[in-house]
C-alpha cells in the first residue's frame, strides 16, 4: 500500500476530511458511517444538510450492504453506463443519518477509479464524495482550481495532483423500489 493511501485511510478512520481525485472531479470525502465527519463536510462546503451528498462504494457487495433492496434495474443501468453514474436508492442502511435525505434515499456510485476503489476496500466502509468547492460556486475542473478555503479546510490532500480526473460530474438517476426511474442530471 502506498503512502498516500495509508495516510488517507488514517485520516478517514480518525473522522477527518480528505481531498482526493475521483472518477469524476476532485472530491471532499469522509467516512460515510461517521456522523461527525459528515457534519464537517457540510460545514466546509457551507451547505445545509437538506442538500444530500453522494456516497461511493467499491463493488456491488458493498452497495447491497448499504441499500435494503437494490432494484434489479440498477445493475442493468450500471452495467451499460458509459460514464460514471450515481443512482439514488430508497432505504439506505449502515451510513450516517445526516447522509440520508428527508425522503429516506441516498445517492450512491459504484466507483471505477483505482485509487478510490483501493481506498474504500482498505477502509472497508463507503466514502462520502462531494465536489471540492463551496456550495454554489463553480465545480473545479482541475486541482489548480480548488480554492484555498477548501485546501485549508481538509485534514489531508491526497498527493495525486497530477492525476487526471474526468472533469465531469456523474449522471444521477433516481430509481425507486416501485420501478420509477427519473434522470436528475445527465
Description of the molecule:
- The chain has helices at 3-13, 35-45, 60-66, 72-80, 114-123, 148-153; strands at residues 18-21, 26-29, 54-57, 85-90, 105-110, 127-131, 156-157, 171-175, 181-185.
- By secondary structure, the protein is of the alpha/beta class.
- It has one domain: DHBP synthase.
- A nine-stranded mixed beta sheet has the order 7-1-2-6-3-5-4-8-9.
- Helix 1 crosses helix 5 (114-123).
- It is globular and about 45 Å long.
- The model has no long low-confidence stretch (mean pLDDT 90).
Compact summary:
The chain has 186 residues and is α/β, with parallel strands linked by helices. It is 29% helix and 22% strand.
Keywords:
186 residues; alpha/beta; DHBP synthase; nine-stranded mixed sheet; 6 helices; 9 strands; TC-AMP_synthase_SUA5; tRNA binding; nucleotide-binding; Sua5-like_dom
List segments where confidence is low: pLDDT < 50 over at least 5 consecutive residues: none
Strand/helix succession: HEEHEHHEEHEHEEE
Helix/sheet category? alpha/beta
CATH class: Alpha Beta
The CATH homologous superfamily is termed DHBP synthase
Question: What is the correct CATH architecture?
Answer: Alpha-Beta Complex
Rg over C-alpha atoms, rounded to the nearest angstrom = 15 Å
Write down the overall mean pLDDT. 90
Q: Cα distance, first to last residue?
A: 35 Å
Q: What is the β-strand count?
A: 9
Global geometry? globular
Q: What is the number of helical segments per DSSP (H or I, 4+ residues)?
A: 6
Q: Can you tell me the number of structural domains?
A: 1
CATH third-tier fold name: DHBP synthase
Q: Main beta sheet, described?
A: 9 strands, mixed
User: What topology, given as strand order, has the largest sheet?
Assistant: 7-1-2-6-3-5-4-8-9
Q: Helical residue percent? A: 25-40%
Strand content: 15-25%
Amino acid at each position: 500500500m502506498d503512502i498516500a493511501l495509508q495516510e488517507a485511510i488514517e485520516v478517514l478512520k480518525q473522522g477527518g476530511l480528505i481531498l482526493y481525485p475521483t472518477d469524476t472531479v476532485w472530491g471532499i470525502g469522509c467516512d460515510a458511517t461517521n456522523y461527525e465527519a459528515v457534519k464537517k463536510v457540510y460545514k466546509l462546503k457551507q451547505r445545509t444538510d437538506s442538500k444530500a451528498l453522494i456516497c461511493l462504494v467499491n463493488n456491488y457487495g458493498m452497495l447491497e450492504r448499504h441499500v435494503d433492496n437494490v432494484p434489479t434495474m440498477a445493475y442493468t443501468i450500471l452495467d451499460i453506463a458509459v460514464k460514471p453514474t450515481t443512482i439514488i436508492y430508497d432505504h439506505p442502511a449502515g451510513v450516517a443519518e445526516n447522509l440520508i435525505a428527508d425522503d429516506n434515499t441516498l445517492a450512491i456510485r459504484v466507483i471505477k477509479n483505482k485509487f478510490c476503489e483501493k481506498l474504500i476496500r482498505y477502509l472497508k466502509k463507503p466514502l462520502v464524495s462531494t465536489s471540492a468547492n463551496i456550495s454554489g460556486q463553480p465545480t473545479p475542473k482541475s486541482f489548480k482550481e480548488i480554492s484555498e478555503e477548501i485546501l485549508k479546510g481538509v485534514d489531508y490532500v491526497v498527493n495525486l495532483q497530477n492525476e487526471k480526473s474526468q472533469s465531469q460530474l456523474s449522471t444521477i438517476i433516481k430509481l425507486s423500489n416501485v420501478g420509477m426511474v427519473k434522470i436528475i442530471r445527465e
